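re: ur question from earlier - yeah i can do the single chain one, its not a big deal. heres the input i used so u can compare w yours
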Amino acid sequence: MATAFSSDGEAALRRELRPAAAPRGDLDGFYEVGRAAAFVRGGGFRKVALQFPDELLADAAAVAARMEAETGAEVYVLGDTTYGSCCVDEVAAEHACAEAVLHYGPACLSPCRKLPVLHVFGKQPLDIGRCAEAFRELYPDRQSRVVVLSDVVYAHAMGELEQQLCPEYPHIIFSRVVYGDPPDPALPGEERQFGRQFLVEAPEGLQDCAMFYVGTEGLTLTNFMLTWNRCSFSSFDPTTNCGRRETLNVNRALMRRLYLVERARDAQVVGILVGTLGVAGYLDVLQHLRELLRRAGKRSYTLAVGKPNPAKLANFLEVDVFVLVACAQNSLLDSSDFYRPVVTPYELELACNPAREWTGNYLTDFRDLLPGACAHVELPPAIPAAEAVPDVSLITGEMRATHLCDSRASQLPPSTTLACRDQTSALAEISPAASFLESRSWRGLEQQLGQTPVSKAVQGRRGIAIAYEDEGREQS
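and the output i got, formated as tokens:
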């Protein structure tokens, strides 16, 4: 299943070109021009980048002109993103030497590294009366403990919905949308994930609560359901004004993810895919994954390929499994169409860190794995290979090593990459990629020196590929 983050571009090539849609009538209200202009003036920014997703690009020129008139700043429009449109594209903004970014539309709310950011989600319409009615139908018991979550584009309407439902449901909890990491430590029972913050006072914690999501079906809802997999979910789709109980088989989805963990345990060569350059902490998690793979005795390669798709990753045949470092919303990449599986940093830790065990809690934010975070687990000390407990792969049935190597012994000096290849004392460099190429039956075009007859150069075909000049005629 292709998404905006992982696409081979076929949809863009087949898309029918139509006249651009007219800009919205109420630009000031929908895009909160007043609040955005106050942010630019308050920060004294002279160059500002406006980042729009594809569905809002029709309004980009009008919003940019309005912002220039209100602030006097030089405005640039980012019409394409390096990775997912939910993330702030600091790379493209730095190309324009922007001092701040105004991010419009849906967002994953991942904290950024460098530039000041203001999120303007856009006030998408929501029928609050119909939403409240659907909630009452799904939860007829007025004593139900329910946490209300919403997509960020409907966050503006949650206050009015709360006023309608709180008098009837004393145990209802509404989440708040927050950006960045709050400075104060979390209170007991407080949840802070995916840019949402809410306090649960139930005796058994969050597992005593149900979840009600306001928004359309997508990656945001899937992440919520996998992360809080012990809670039952219902949703209300504002585009259809229909409420329903979610029927996603969470257990089946988790079984699929645990199968990928087994594939990661069997892997010998791992490709680390850089899926973000703007989320804070991505460099730390890259170093963390490299050290983890080094201790686990696996070879790793760091790859920056932009938006991953099956065609790009199929070029790295020697890689057994890929691990995607991206924001929490784009980490769960459906790799069923890929030649090799793509796992998350948490799944790679489950595969390579013997001290980390599956507890039922699924993590999609890679920052939770770093030292000092809530879910960090230290690597255990190295165990000699003779004392290691043998392990059998559940996929291949073969024996595999699961013990960790000594961190000092795993850092070999560069000179040891050369070893004697045969009795003639010829030297060869040890490389998994070269070994893989050696094992392939077809290695590309062969030179066949001395076997190809020499011939004079002849004139080739002329024209363009769609219509050569000699098309349809037998070439002389």
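The chain has a mean pLDDT of 82. not sure if urs matches, ping me
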